[in-house]
Task: structure prediction
Amino acid sequence: MKHLYIHIPFCERRCSYCDFNTYANLEDRIGPYVDALCAELAMLEPPPLPAAPGSNGHAPPLTSAVLRPTIFFGGGTPSMLTLDQFERILQAASRLVTLDRAEISIEANPGNVLGDATPALDYLRGVRSLGINRLSLGVQTLHDPTLRILGRTHSAADARTCYDTARRAGFDNISLDFIFGLPGQTIAQWHAILDEVAVWQPDHLSLYSLILEESTPLYAQVIGGRVSVPDDDVTGAMYEAAMERLAAAGYEQYEISNWARSTAAPAPGRVPTHACQHNLAYWLNSDYLAAGAGAHGHVYPQRYYDMLRVDAYIATVREGRRPIAEVTNLTPTDLYAETVFMGLRLNVGLNLEHFRLRCGVGLDEVYGDTLADLQAQGLLERTADSVRLTHQGRMLGNRVFEAFV
Ligand code: SF4
Result:
């Protein structure tokens, strides 16, 4: 098996915009939860490896087969785990994923890493020594008043310190998460963040437009008029600014919301060296297992997700049962549509050989008319071996994706 997602559903406190499956003030459950997680991993069966394309003497196309094995610890706040807990989970995961050559990522919160009893440098060195080789830091913004509105536990200075400490601890693959379109955020503030980040030179950047989820306190504040967020024109301008400034700083955008540095020269069909292998598995609509409360897995022809509540999750695993909340059976039509609209998120587009290997049928056989229509509208373009969004298609992504549903 190549890909495994592990969910750590604990946070020191809830951010005002967050609707992830995560809980504050449950620190006393972390130990029993890790026990249950290891037991769940022991119950999982790896799916078959993806089919590889035949060799034609050229560089292989971007298909599931060319990805490295991956483990992604997401959350929540995985950096709330101790080194011993990470070690136990990795040991349990090693029967599912070949750890050698694997990309192993953890999400970390600067406030938690710096605020823990263990000094940050020692902790991060310990994490790195376990074979965890990619760190994804949730920075979100470098504007302290906005961090407070978001309910983050760190300041901009903490984020800088955490980033520098991670470099000193030996991490040479660091990703930073930012959000744009935040309450009160101006274009000038966003430009200042992009300029500062260009100086930091992280290996990877994920930039997301704020999504106001109805269940969150921030949504209620915005609806109640207590805080305001930039309109669509301003967030669109922020996105355009990110594309321009990060390209000028040497980053390659390889997905709608993701940029990375590369040590290899650009070439058709290739993604940058520091592209996230785990997320590429999602965008290629590959199979992956998942473990942990609320974790979503996908092994065609099924999707599943685990029980959301921590106590129910622990109790079910203790009874020797898999803690699955729901299984969805997928049809070939689901597989075709998901492979297209996930693949089109990538700047290199959807490789035709990848679609054939994943779906067992040619892309034009399924979507010939739709593709021609979107091409005529200037939203899609074709190369000899792929289909991809044009710049206009990228700005109107939802209109394109709806055409395949
Ligand atoms: S740290 Fe991340 S997962 Fe936790 S509440 Fe904040 S946004 Fe949500």
Q: What stands out?
A: The CA atoms of residues 141 and 178 lie 6 Å apart.
